[in-house]
Design a protein that fits this description.
Layout (H helix, E strand, L loop, with lengths): L2 H11 L9 H40 L2 E5 L11 E2 L2 H8 L4 E15 L4 E9 L6 H5 L1 E4 L12 E5 H7 L6 E7 L3 E12 L4 H4 L2 E5 H7 L6 E2 L1 E6 L5 H11 L11 E5 H4 L1 H39 L1 H9 L4 H37 L6 H4 L10 H23 L7 H5 L3
Parallel strand pairs: 4-9, 6-8
Antiparallel strand pairs: 1-11, 1-12, 2-10, 3-4, 3-7, 3-11, 5-8, 7-8
Helix pairs in contact: 1-12, 2-10, 2-12, 2-14, 10-14, 12-14
Length: 414
């Protein structure tokens, strides 16, 4: 039988525990553990949710990888590349490639009677994945765009709709500038809102056929090819592999292709997200430290209160290791109770916020209108295991104080 564990259970479940002098200190220690774990669960879920939401919006506009002219200047215009069956087969043969889609874009200006706004018209066709756009449509609908016929419709953002005072069904004049001014009159079929101002204020979506005609391009030409991956954890590796694959590839126009990923396209956004990882670690260290130190104080008070019991155990033959293990087991029980309440508080916040969105944000500052949360089971489990292990390890040193308690002196202790 495990003697330290048996005695620790008797002390923890004993009827006189409510009369102990150490009870207030024990309660404070468990509160420290509960608050620490709850704050860690809340902080990790919010920061993880925020990063996931921002990443999904950026990749929603540009996918994981982009294949384009290797010499193209970064901007709204680009040298066209040829998209044919052989190139599609070459890209989809990679095991990490989930979907391949082309797009064309053209910079222009939308004008109404009272206002005008610069835009980038992004042409897409029926093969383009539109789940992201449909998810964020707030009015109207997304037309089924084509690469063979003009729909004369356009999907605009709420930012543009507000600036130009447009509603679904309104007609809007759009002008494009080459050697001459070219005009198109589009009907607003829908309005979307992602709260990501860097994209919402710029992109409108229409059919690939119209944008290619505005660019004077052939039907098989496009500004670029977007690639969705099965696992974005392989982003860097897949970028390198596809880049190497296309290194010597060129089309009939002599254009050489290059591959960039979403992080390379948006370095400022992803550098900002990396800073949030530092915040997570700072919060974890602080909360575990606070929880551990409150538990140390509680353990020391318990040891002092149980000095006579320690003396009796030693006089009966128990060594310092046995007594130390007794108090460490008792600490595990107290930490476990604190962690139980910490999980109740932290998970309650997570589920309430996830399903109700009760806490809101300013979209102009945070790119979303409510606090996002995301928490996977492995991360939750690691937080609990880490809190328990670190807290117990922090108590190992203070537990050695029992070695300084001698049976003869402890019998007279009151």
């Amino acid at each position: 039988m495990n003697l330290p564990l048996f005695i620790a259970k008797r002390i923890y479940n004993g009827p006189d525990i409510s009369k102990q002098v150490s009870r207030p200190a024990v309660i404070i220690s468990m509160i420290g553990i509960a608050i620490g774990l709850a704050v860690m669960i809340i902080a990790v879920s919010v920061i993880t949710g925020f990063k996931s939401e921002i990443r999904s919006k950026v990749t929603g506009f540009s996918s994981h990888l982009l294949v384009t002219d290797v010499n193209a200047v970064i901007g709204s215009e680009s040298t066209p590349i040829i998209y044919n069956d052989s190139l599609q087969s070459l890209l989809t043969a990679h095991p990490q490639v989930k979907h391949v889609q082309r797009y064309s874009q053209k910079a222009g200006m939308m004008k109404t009677a009272d206002a005008f706004q610069g835009i980038v018209a992004k042409g897409i066709d029926s093969d383009y994945q539109t789940d992201f756009l449909r998810e964020h449509i707030i009015q109207g609908e997304l037309t089924q765009f084509s690469d063979t016929v003009s729909t004369n419709t356009v999907l605009i953002s709420k930012v543009l709709a507000d600036k130009l005072q447009l509603n679904v069904g309104d007609k809007v004049d759009t002008y494009f500038f080459d050697e001459s001014i070219r005009a198109r009159k589009w009907v607003v079929s829908g309005i979307y809102e992602t709260h990501f101002s860097a994209f919402d204020g710029l992109y409108v979506f229409t059919d690939l056929y119209t944008v290619n005609r505005l660019n004077h391009w052939d039907v098989d030409e496009a500004s670029g090819i977007e690639i969705a991956l099965r696992d974005d954890g392989s982003l860097e590796q897949t970028t390198f592999e596809l880049g190497t694959l296309l290194n010597d590839f060129s089309d009939r126009n002599g254009t050489h292709y290059g591959v960039v990923n979403v992080e390379q396209q948006n370095p400022a956004v992803f550098s900002w997200l990396e800073v949030l990882d530092v915040n997570i670690w700072v919060i974890l260290v602080l909360m575990i430290g606070i929880a551990g130190f409150t538990m140390i104080a509680g353990l020391l008070i318990i040891i002092i209160e149980r000095t006579q019991m320690i003396g009796v155990l030693k006089s009966l033959g128990a060594n310092n290791t046995t007594v130390r293990h007794l108090f460490l087991w008792l600490s595990v029980f107290l930490i476990g109770r604190g962690m139980l309440w910490g999980n109740i508080i932290g998970l309650a916040f997570y589920f309430v916020q996830r399903y109700t969105g009760v806490l809101t944000l300013d979209p102009s500052t945070y790119y979303m209108d409510k606090v996002p949360v995301s928490l996977s089971f492995p991360i939750w489990l690691l937080l609990n295991i880490g809190t328990l292990v670190v807290s117990v390890l922090m108590l190992v040193g203070p537990s050695y104080i029992v070695a300084r308690i001698h049976p003869a002196n402890s019998m007279r202790y009151e």
